Amino acid sequence: MTTGAPIPNTLIHVKNITHGRNEDIKHEITSVNEGDYYRLLTPGQYEVVVYHEDYYPQSRTVTVLPKGHSEAQRIDFALRPLPKVMRVSCKVMRVSCNSYEEV
Questions:
Q1: Which Gene3D superfamilies match (predicted)?
Q2: What is the pLDDT of residue 86?
């Protein structure tokens, strides 16, 4: 279940997958207090993955079109909270929790 509330301090990772590429953009960004984040991208196709220690990660494929000087494309994510038991074990073990099983 998601609440629709903004989530600050969420990591956003972008990978360029245009025309079969598989190139990580080596600069992750972090959402601010209201959950906002900005990433300037050239036209192409990208995989955007968001991570937060208390939520399941989520990815989305995004196509950026050459629109000239127009409003920025908005991509929102609705993250699902991890079970409390999983949150504690991820923090205690200090591991990257990239795969999850509900307990």
A1: Carboxypeptidase-like, regulatory domain
A2: 58
In a domain, 91, yes or no: no
Helix (H, G, I), strand (E, B) or coil at 100: coil
Structural domain tally of the chain?
1
Asked whether residue 50 is assigned to any structural domain, the reply reads yes
Q: Is residue 48 part of a domain?
A: yes
pLDDT of residue 103: 41
pLDDT for 102: 46
Question: What's the rounded Cα separation, in Å, for the pair 70 and 72?
Answer: 6
Domain that residue 34 falls in: 10-81
